[in-house]
Amino acid sequence: MRIYLDHNATTPVDSTVVDTVSNVLRDCYGNASSVHTFGQSAKALLDDARASVAALLGAKPVEIVFTGGGTESDNLAIRGAAGVSSPSGRRHLIASTIEHEAVLNTIKDLTRHGWTATYLPVGASGIVNPSDLETAITDQTALVSVMHANNEIGTLQPITELASIAHTHGALFHTDAVQTAGKYRLSTSELGADLLSISGHKFNGPKGVGALWVRRGTRLTSSLTGGRQERNRRAGTENVAGIAGLGVAAQVAVDKLPGETSRLRRLRDRLESEILCNVSGSELNGTGQRVSNTTNISFDGIEAEALLIALDLEGIAVSTGSACSSGTLEPSHVLRAMGFSPQRAQSSIRFSLGLGNTEEHVTRVVESLPPIVSKLRQLSGRHASRT
After folding, report:
1. Confidence of residue 321 (pLDDT cuts 50, 70, 90)
2. What is the C-alpha separation between 318 and 307, in angstroms, rounded?
3. Domain at 157, CATH number
4. Beta-bridge partners for 315
5. Is 324 considered catalytic here?
């Protein structure tokens, strides 16, 4: 039996989504911009998917812009807002230090072209303090971008309060909700943001498709020029099959919430508590309110990569953090931003649960971990110093 506990990296595609994508690829091959029957059939699929994604977000269909995924959605939000704000002289951006690289590297690129940026700290809790935004924001700030839930530690940010502060100072507010869409009840009106990014493959939809919610009346410049697709915000022939799959994944998620959220929280809490109780030198990373499926735990005296490989040999798939940062030898920028030492950051494992995970899976993991950790410590000659 193989156990998949890396749902924050990507998720298994729901069977109804697979069927939908396959059927559309085979039977509905028209271009949604064409006026004939084939084209209008494709456009109807886009309209249905737009309505489903809007329902997932508590939004209006007209506010949904389809993209190629979370990274493109983040880019369109940040670069699109920057393009509109630049002529006014507002050329300052704010983000948290624990944002996904799709946000951090986009802002970094803009700073090479005359923009300035401020990064909000989080501390050991992994949560942004709104007072830090009050201190950092100026009348030159064009956009504030703070993710809804962190992809590595799962902490939920006080988006409503942060967005209110941004608006008081005339700035737009964007949130990367890639890790909460489909896992957590979202309401764009309650969050108060202007822009919100999601990605289909994080909630059992296909890869290569996502969406940006744009509050009606919010102006953006397009990052892709060409045709007039997506109300002039995202040029290019639409990925009709992928978007249809995204729409079905959104419907499935709406139908399962909040029951699935509660189920995953119970599994996560049991996994977390039994690991912390039974594995010496283990410690939780990130406190306070978190998305229900995620826990990040450090194991003193162990290299996380070695533990990941040992667990994989036992048929248990976990991660050391963001899949988009895999391959780097640098410790997690999220854990370092929380003030943890490089050693602790490099000894941390993320467990993220989802579709198909069961109590049996949790039992298998908590029984497998103690002997694996003990063996790795013996091989390295290191011992746990934290309890």
Report:
1. confident
2. 9
3. 3.40.640.10
4. none
5. yes
pLDDT digit string, tens, across residues 30-60: 999 999 999 999 999 999 999 999 999 999 9
What number of other Cβ atoms are within 10 A of residue 357's Cβ?
Answer: 22
Question: Which residue has tokens 């393009």?
Answer: 83
Residues 36 and 185 in one domain: yes
Q: Which of 117, 324, 355, 384 is catalytic?
A: 324
pTM (global) more than 0.85: yes
The verdict on residue 308 lying in a domain is yes
What's the number of domains the chain is made of?
A: 2
Domain-embedded: residue 385 = no
Tokens 């064009």 belong to which residue?
142
Same domain flag for 211 and 350: no
207 Rama sector, left if φ>0, alpha if ψ -120 to 50, beta otherwise: beta
Do residues 243 and 261 both lie within one domain? no
